[in-house]
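Supplementary Methods. Inverse-folding protocol.

Structures were first reduced to a discrete structure-token string of length 250. This string, shown here, constituted the complete conditioning input.
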């Protein structure tokens, strides 16, 4: 994996969870970090039951680059059905705007380099709960998932915030974490929209100071600022080029 050498225990746990290698951090008995001149190794020992299950599962993933699907052995695995997330609590348009505005000030590495992705977890009652940064957007989300799991923070009460575009594996990972909202500053791909719809995730994207667009499950977002009519936006994506229905909030 090519990753920023920070929050690596979170990364190891989060990647293992979001890729289905383990179902819970309780299945990781021990984690050891070994540094060398060549890089850093994260060694994990799993429970005996999980080790046996892992032997039956064949998915060898060379560190995700670009679309994040490099190294997957089959199209079936790449497009695996995501778990359906819990329904979660309603958000208002103000909640969405407060959430996305909170992320920039909490990214020290990005302020220094202007080259880091961020993934954060936000709750209406608590604000920004956790944030992780990485040069890779998939890695940032894995680190966030690991941090939430290690701190025993349930995902159903909040939203995942992303500074990147939303591709299909970002939706799959969010579903594995169990969060019903994705709020991103950039656009989703067509396949990401379809996957979010199947997972029961409310996908909010192009979220900036002047508004946002709701691509899936708009019923969770209530308020006068939500325009009821459905509009069409052309989504240009690596996976597909298609028109998807969205609700626009300004």
């Amino acid at each position: 994996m090519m990753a920023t050498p920070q929050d690596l225990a979170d990364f190891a746990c989060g990647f293992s969870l979001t890729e289905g290698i383990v179902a819970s951090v309780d299945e990781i008995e021990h984690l050891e970090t070994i540094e060398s001149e060549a890089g850093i190794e994260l060694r994990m020992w799993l429970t005996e039951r999980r080790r046996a299950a892992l032997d039956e599962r064949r998915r060898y993933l060379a560190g995700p680059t670009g679309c994040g699907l490099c190294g997957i052995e089959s199209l079936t695995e790449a497009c695996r059905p995501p778990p359906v997330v819990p329904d979660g609590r309603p958000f208002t348009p103000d909640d969405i705007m407060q959430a996305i505005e909170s992320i920039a000030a909490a990214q020290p590495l990005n302020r220094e380099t202007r080259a880091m992705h961020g993934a954060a977890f936000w709750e209406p009652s608590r604000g920004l709960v956790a944030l992780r940064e990485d040069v890779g957007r998939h890695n940032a989300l894995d680190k966030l998932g690991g941090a939430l799991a290690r701190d025993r923070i349930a995902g159903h009460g909040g939203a995942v915030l992303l500074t990147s575009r939303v591709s299909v594996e970002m939706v799959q990972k969010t579903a594995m974490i169990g969060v019903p909202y994705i709020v991103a500053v950039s656009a989703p791909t067509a396949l990401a929209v379809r996957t979010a719809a199947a997972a029961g995730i409310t996908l909010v994207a192009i979220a900036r100071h002047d508004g946002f667009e709701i691509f899936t499950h708009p019923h969770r977002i209530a308020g006068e600022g939500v325009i009821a009519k459905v509009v069409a936006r052309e989504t240009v994506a690596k996976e597909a080029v298609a028109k998807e229905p969205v609700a626009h909030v300004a």
